[in-house]
Amino acid sequence: MTTFRNADQFRDAQFIDVDMTGAQFRETDLTGTRMRGVILVNADIDGYIRDLVINGVDVVPLVEAELDRRHPERTKLRPTTPQAAREAWDVVESLWAATVERARRLNEADLHRSVDDEWSFAETLRHLVMVTDAWLSRAVLAESRPFHPIGLPASFLTNGAEFGIDADAEPSFDEVLAVRADRMARVRAFVDSATQDDLDRTRDGGAGAGWPPAASRSATACLHVILNEEWTHHQFAVRDLAIIEGES
């Protein structure tokens, strides 16, 4: 399979009478893509999707409604008040507590094992450490050095070395769990003490190297990013755990 990595030669390109059967797109920006007369059968799409019109129908509201039906807890992950924020984090803690306990029954190698080139369970938790560091410690609390060395950035970012992340880190699962527990506790401490003003007030966190870029954001907006990342990556983790368990 031919692989194109960190490539931009396809921006504004036209693909006419091209066979892409079996193609894979990972961390790919398809914003503004137009498809006409395509054949899309047995496709599987995961990602941030908005304003997706298929045969004249915006399907995103339909997908979101179906996800809410299948996973009612999602409706609690869009808080706008302090009490709702605390309840939302209750949901996240409950989801991950059960899943981490399930994962602990696997051996160390399986906890670091990739399924279909996705992040391993340990790498997923490392990414969520980075998410907390980025969207709470940096964007909300404006800490000068928010990033833990074992955090794992998304592939569209740099390796994070310039803001303190060790791209070569290979922590044990117990080490990952310890840092992850600390980051979860930081979110808990914030939502437990937050007032409505704390949530609504815009902040300019994000000076210096790091992610996200500097911008004015409310704590509510940042919290929504954290909650969405937590839920989405929990879905991925459960999916891949089932595969590893089945093969074991």
Give a structural overview.
It is a single chain. The chain is built from 7 helices and 4 strands; from the N terminus they run E-E-H-H-H-H-H-H-E-E-H. It is mainly alpha-helical and 248 residues long. The strands form 2 sheets. A two-stranded antiparallel sheet has the order 1-2.
Core attributes:
about 250 residues, mainly alpha
Q: Layout of SSEs?
A:
Blueprint: E1 53-54, E2 57-58, H1 60-70, H2 82-103, H3 108-111, H4 121-138, H5 173-193, H6 196-200, E3 202-203, E4 217-218, H7 219-247
Antiparallel strand pairs: 1-2, 3-4
Short synopsis of the structure:
By secondary structure, this protein is mainly alpha-helical. The protein has helices at residues 60-70, 82-103, 108-111, 121-138, 173-193, 196-200, 219-247, and strands at 53-54, 57-58, 202-203, 217-218. α4 (121-138) packs antiparallel against α7 (219-247).
Rg (CA only)? 19 Å
Tally of helical runs: 7
Average pLDDT, all residues: 92
Q: Major sheet: size, sense and barrel closure?
A: 2 strands, antiparallel
Spatially, the strands of the biggest sheet line up as 1-2
**N-to-C SSE string, H for helix and E for strand:** EEHHHHHHEEH
Number of strands: 4
Strand content: under 5%
Give the helix proportion (percent range): 40-55%
Distance between the termini: 28 Å
Q: Uncertain runs with pLDDT below 50, 5 residues or more?
A: none
- Identify the quaternary structure here: single chain
Structural class comes to mainly alpha
The geometry reads as globular
